[in-house]
Design a protein that fits this description.
The chain is mainly beta. It folds into 2 domains: 38 residues; 332 residues, Beta Barrel (Porin). It is 11% helix and 51% strand. It is built from 4 helices and 19 strands. The strands form 2 sheets. The protein has a 17-stranded antiparallel beta sheet that branches. A hairpin with a 2-residue loop joins β2 and β3. α1 packs antiparallel against α2. The longest helix has 22 residues. The radius of gyration is 29 Å and the shape is globular. It starts with a helix and ends with a strand.
Length: 378
């Protein structure tokens, strides 16, 4: 429009001097107009919708009459029933420096692991939005509900080496809510995160709790065959006047020893102040070792050795003399069918210092179960 108007104005100038001025003004104004018309390319948008289904069958040799397995298990915890552990539909959206995720779920995992959450939130797997703070670097701020920064196991079974979750995974956060600041180095080898959280696996704070909880994470990936991680949590999960500060560390390493052999080694260790101020702090810890051998193109053999010690009942309360001191030695066969379908069979057992379980309708120190699952990702 400026070009058209200038043409009409300058057409009235006739002498040579004015002709030169005319050309100069046309160049200046037309060039300015072209510059004003240049607009940045619109940011690319992406919307990805995915789903996951994990039906299962578990036979618990304790044969609980209410069909409910031990209370420290939150996955595959219904006995002698064909059930759904996790059904998930998720949408992920990105546009330029923005990103967002929304996942809704159903199944026994959601029913039991989110039992303490408000009814309307019990089917939320994740719900978060993020903004990239640095245009040229990987610095992100995410706010909402997201998977936990603690541990190497996920609520999504296909992402784990073993079918059933370890004792340390079942008794540390699977999810968290709050704000997360994440930075990844240009090489991609280092990732740092700092978190402000609503609590230890909580979407909403406990009543009467106004104390902040914080977390950190450092991940180092020097190569495709090695991952080292250190995650922490610090906070109080009780009412302010009954505060018992909890300090927790999660360490793990994942190494691919060869093309067919992999190993995971991990350790959870935490302390929480005793309810009695004169009693100091209570300690719990859990070391774990998982091995994986690829036997053939679609067959893996996995083994897990773990120990969980919570003598004072910080995480798992038993009301027994030795608390929860339990050794687990399960093994897992996994067969992978084409694309993203998985069939899994797993026998497993637990051995505890006290008689925490039931076998043949009598108190027992050992616990046995068989679990199978067929899961589909799309």
């Amino acid at each position: 429009m400026i070009r058209f108007c200038v043409g009409y104005f300058l057409n009235g100038l006739t002498n040579p001097t004015m002709e030169k001025l005319k050309l100069t003004l046309i160049w200046l104004l037309f060039g300015a107009r072209l510059g004003a018309q240049v607009t940045p390319e619109p940011a690319q948008k992406s919307l990805l919708v995915s789903g996951y289904l994990e039906p299962y069958f578990t036979y618990d040799f304790s044969e609980p009459e209410d069909h409910l397995r031990p209370g420290f298990l939150y996955n595959f915890n219904r006995h002698n029933e064909v059930h759904l552990n996790l059904g998930l539909i998720k949408a992920s959206y990105t546009e330029g420096r923005l990103r967002a995720n929304l996942g809704l779920m159903a199944g026994t995992y959601a029913q039991y692991n989110l039992a303490a959450e408000p009814d309307l939130l019990r089917h939320v797997f994740e719900s978060n939005a993020g903004y990239k703070l640095a245009a040229s670097g990987e610095l992100w701020l995410d706010i909402g509900i997201f998977p936990s920064h603690i541990g190497f196991e996920s609520a999504i079974g296909k992402d784990n080496w073993t079918l059933t979750r370890s004792l340390l995974a079942e008794n540390s956060p699977y999810y968290e809510s709050g704000a997360r600041l994440t930075y990844s180095s240009p090489s991609g080898q280092w990732t740092f995160a700092a978190l402000y959280l609503n609590g230890w696996q909580r979407m909403v704070r406990p009543e009467g709790n106004n104390t902040p909880a914080v977390g950190t994470q450092v991940t180092y990936k020097p190569s495709s065959g090695l991952i080292l991680n250190w995650s922490t949590f610090s906070g109080n999960d009780k009412k302010d006047e009954e505060a018992q500060w909890r300090f927790f560390n999660n360490f793990y390493g994942i190494v691919q020893l060869s093309e067919n052999v992999g190993l995971i080694a991990g350790l959870d260790i935490g302390t929480e102040a005793s309810a009695n101020p004169d009693a100091g702090s209570n300690l719990w810890f859990s070391p774990i070792l998982i091995g994986q051998v690829s036997l053939a193109e679609r067959w893996n053999l996995n083994g897990r050795l773990e120990y969980y010690s919570d003598e004072h009942g910080v995480i798992v309360s038993t009301q027994t003399p030795n608390g929860f001191q339990t050794l687990g030695i399960p093994s897992t066969w996994i067969t992978r069918f084409p694309v993203k379908h998985y069939g899994v069979w797993r026998p497993g057992g637990l051995s505890s210092k006290d008689r925490l379980f039931v076998l043949n309708k009598e108190p027992s120190k050992v616990h046995y179960a068989l679990t199978t699952s067929f899961c589909v990702a799309f």
